[in-house]
Design brief:
mainly alpha; Sodium/glucose cotransporter
């Protein structure tokens, strides 16, 4: 069928409408609390869907079907860990954030330890988020690249040039959207976009089942030989060396997955910024725990979709389908197999959801820069009007940097989901360890936390360089290192500091 001019018109109109609506929703901002925290008055239901859309929109849409297309649905085991981790966030982290008017995730560390620890944690977050979201922006460019190439426009460009053009286009739109809208518009647009792209995925499922002889029985028949629908895997057939490399055995997925989720949803400003927009502690807890239930069903849909695509394309490899990477399989189906108009709507929803996700990234990077670094150190005498203006300029600056980073990921090997999660896991453990040690041990000083955190980063560098372990275990290693080293430093007095708790407000 192909991607027609009608589909292209739908994409353009839909994206323009999304930017316009998002800008209108966030039009009444007067200070940084409005711009970064939505006035702390967002309903928890909206925050729930915004959390899910932010963390998984693009990567789930194209990356998760690729995982099950190449393998099976054992990735689902890690989702159980994600659900447990979010429950722990609600019980452990959110009560700590609810004490005082915390502006960012790292504001808590400033109150508990001091400005140095707050600055170190915030800068670490910025570096990690920049790399992980550079992958996200690159992932968003995949379907747009397929459309441009398939339409015949701009013929003669290489794959790398197509990707670069797509990244710049999406990135610029995202910068405009974020500069105007603020977190309130981002959250409410997430709610709209998620309903559309999940509806598109379900439509793809129905279309595949309708075309396959025997429907779902046909999927099972194709999947039987390759165990495509296998979801439970203990890994007992693996040696110890192979076991620690496998990310989706039951033990690694559930235990390490829950710790990873505790870190990603308890210490990452991208998520905590949303939690802090809720009206009170109970609303924040409801939002984070409910997101675990929603995420389970979302992952299930996209994993099954990958198995169905495997049956639809009769088990052909990405190369046999004329693709350069597995992440292009679902976009290929959308562009080539879906009815005229529907294809355009789904691609539009994908782009709009990606813009919401990336605008969230820019907002979180900007909020960490302004609220954690600039305001405490250089902006104490600035008015709210001045801080709001600076915040918007910082957002634009991060947009340029993010676009450049995404272009640097062109040629990336491996599915984008696993690459992005691996990048985030590198520092999540260290951040989680600092938060936990600050909560569980009131005697630990700032210098102890810094020593533990720096040691964890060194250990993680050595582990990643010399030991091949599954990416969910990175967080376990990092958090354990911080806690052990930090407690030892506190007990034996490796460092000294006059105050355990420093208020920096």
């Amino acid at each position: 069928m192909g991607f027609t001019s009608i589909d292209m018109i739908i994409v353009v109109v839909y994206m323009a409408a999304s930017v316009g609506l998002g800008s209108w929703i966030g039009r009444k901002q007067t200070n940084t609390t409005d711009y970064f925290l939505g006035g702390r008055d967002i309903p928890w239901q909206a925050v729930t869907f915004s959390i899910v859309a932010t963390e998984t929109s693009v990567l789930t849409f194209i990356g998760i079907p690729a995982i099950s297309y190449l393998g099976n649905i054992t990735f689902l085991q890690i989702v159980f860990g994600y659900m447990i981790g979010r429950l722990l966030v609600a019980l452990i982290m959110i009560p700590a954030y609810s004490e005082g008017k915390i502006e960012t995730a790292y504001h808590f560390l400033g109150n508990r330890f001091g400005q140095k620890m707050r600055s170190i944690a915030s800068i670490t977050f910025m570096g990690t988020r920049l790399l992980a979201d550079g992958v996200r922006l690159f992932a968003t460019a995949i379907p747009l690249t397929i459309i441009i190439k398939g339409s015949g426009f701009l013929g003669g460009l290489t794959d790398g040039q197509f990707y670069a053009l797509s990244i710049v286009f999406i990135g610029i739109l995202t910068m405009v959207y974020t500069y105007i809208g603020g977190i309130r518009s981002v959250i409410w647009m997430d709610v709209i976009q998620m309903s559309v792209y999940i509806g598109g995925a379900l439509l793809a499922v129905l279309l595949i089942l309708n075309r396959l002889p025997g429907g779902f029985d046909g999927v099972i028949e194709w999947a039987a030989d390759e165990n495509k629908l296998r979801w439970l895997y203990f890994g007992t057939d693996l040696s110890l060396r192979e076991f620690i490399k496998a990310p989706y055995t039951l033990f690694t997925a559930v235990i390490a997955g829950s710790i990873f989720s505790l870190a990603s949803h308890g210490t990452d400003q991208l998520i905590i910024q949303r939690v802090l927009t809720c009206r009170d502690k109970r609303s924040s807890q409801l939002a984070i725990t409910s997101s675990g239930i929603v995420i389970f069903f979302q992952f299930l849909i996209f994993l099954l979709l990958g198995a169905m695509l495997y049956a639809y394309y009769e088990g052909l490899s990405p190369e046999q389908l004329g693709l350069t990477r597995a992440d292009e399989i679902f976009p290929k189906f959308i562009v080539e197999e879906m009815p005229v108009g529907i294809s355009g709507l789904i691609v539009a929803a994908l782009f709009a959801a990606a813009m919401s996700t990336l605008s969230s990234s820019l907002s979180s990077l900007s909020s960490a820069t302004v609220l954690d670094i600039y305001k405490p150190l250089f902006g104490k005498d600035k008015s709210e009007t001045e801080l709001l203006s600076i915040s918007r300029k910082v957002t634009l600056g991060w947009g340029v940097i993010l676009i450049s980073t995404a272009i640097g990921f062109i040629g990336l090997k491996g599915t984008v989901v696993e690459v992005a999660l691996g990048i985030a896991s590198y520092t999540y453990g260290g951040l989680l360890g600092v938060f936990l040690i600050g909560i569980i041990d009131k005697k630990t000083k700032q210098i102890d936390a810094i020593i533990g955190f720096v040691t964890a980063l060194i250990v993680m560098t050595v582990v990643i360089a010399t030991l091949k372990i599954a990416w969910p275990l990175y967080t376990v290693v990092g958090a354990t290192t911080v806690i052990v080293v930090g407690l030892m430093s506190s007990k034996f007095g490796f460092g000294s500091e006059s105050k355990t708790n420093k208020m920096t407000e």
